[in-house]
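Exam revision sheet. Question 4 asks you to relate a sequence to its structure. Input first:
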Amino acid sequence: MRHITEGTFCLLAAAVILAVCSRSSFLYAFNNWDDANSYFTVGKGIMNGLMPYRDLFDQKGPLLYFLYGIAYLISHTTFRGVYVIEVLCGAADLLAVFRIISLYTEGAAAPFCKAIPYLLTPVTGMLMFSSRSFYWGGSAEEMLLPSLLWGLYLLMRYFKKLYPAPLPDRTVFAAGILAGCVFLIKFNSLGFYFGFMVMVLIADLTEAQQSEENGSNGGCRSRSKLRFTVAGIKRFLRHCGFFLSGMFLSALPWILFFAIRGALYDLFHVYIYLNAFVYSEKLPFAERLYRMLRIIYAHMRSNWQYSCPAALGLVLLFVRAAAKKGKWTELAAPVMTGGFLLTGIFIGGVELLYYPFPAAAFACLGAAGIAALPADASGRGSADLGVEKTEKKAGRMDSRIAGLAAAFGAAGIGIGVLCALLLSMNVHFMKYEKDDLWMYHFRDRIAESGIKAPTLLNVNCFDAGLYTVADILPTCRFFQTQTIKLDDVALTQQAFIDEGRTDFVLSRDHEPQNIGRHYRKIAEEVMEQSENTYVYYLYEKAD
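Answer key, structure tokens:
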């Protein structure tokens, strides 16, 4: 571990911590979360020639389904492929966290400060992945988190190291690409990048004022002031162009893919229109605002693993700015992006356990603030900055602190695993084997029927996992029951049952209407899930 790179270290830490925290890992018999199974089914459909939205109805973004499609190619009937995708995303998360923490240890006079990110990065990852909103693993929020963390890194790096110098165009373009990835997974988290562009506006206007004052004062630096100028507005419009170009570049392959397959209307109608105008609740503005604030407060209390570090980090950034060891914009950047992020997520009035997980990105602020304490206390030297740049280019670490970094890294991963075992809501599910789960019993009943390429309809609940374990590709567009208020869902599913169009029907808690016309019940099992008890029924076509 003495010569391990930052990326490899983060990959190792993510793999170990997520093995404990995610039900997709090899430590669990199956990820029985219905949302994750529906993503898996749509991803499987993509890899078998079906189109999301048109052939298989679900409401998340196409990039999420593509990632699950890759997971399906890795393993057709388990979540081992999803675990691989989670580890890669988790490694990207932790590498961004590592870089953000390192911003506050660069140039420290005490060499050991450079090893601190190796200790704090895995611990921060544990706090994010063991939180209540991480849920069971594999959420859309988890898959988009890297795009938020790297956007936060770009913003924090600029305001800490370059501001009030001009904001590089390539930084805004990269942010646009990241925002496009968020949009293609779940667009209600795009509020983060609205806040990002507000900070770009502030940077452009204050930079314009700074340049004017520098020119009039013989090049002497003076205090930055926010003022609307023609130069600043032009600079911001140019940055908007770069940002939108990045977003368009991310979306272009999917626009072409859906256009070629004749499903572009379905993409916009289901993913954008229905999510924006049908799924969210209709509430008066005052009630919507009150409900949003109440929901955010409740979620931040229940997800203390990252809300407390985030709050600590903001306090420490405030103290650094007040002591003139940091800039006020370093504090404004996470406040602005975090505020707009939470507003975008909860303004619709919908409250689910996993919704606030994108806010876990700000857990790194606590680690960064803690890392800055010894670095500030030891003092900083310009010579060390040059050494760090040379080390980064060479991809190695000074041998004086490599051993300390290895020890810190091992301790960080060890602490992360131990705390994850204590904090993660999923650990209790490790006791279950495949033989304990109803979906494997139902899979065996389907196999015993001898039907080649059996068909299945899942009603009265989201995708419960039988499509996955039995490796069945849906033949009905509404392959699961939806919560969205569309009459087509119930009508289409009932037509399939009335006409006996699938070999098997899976139902939860209720017997489907007219099921006895073409089907007979062949299995029934009870399962406790999320502190609830459900009864699952399997019907086989009798005629």
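Marking note for examiners. The longest strand covers residues 519-529.
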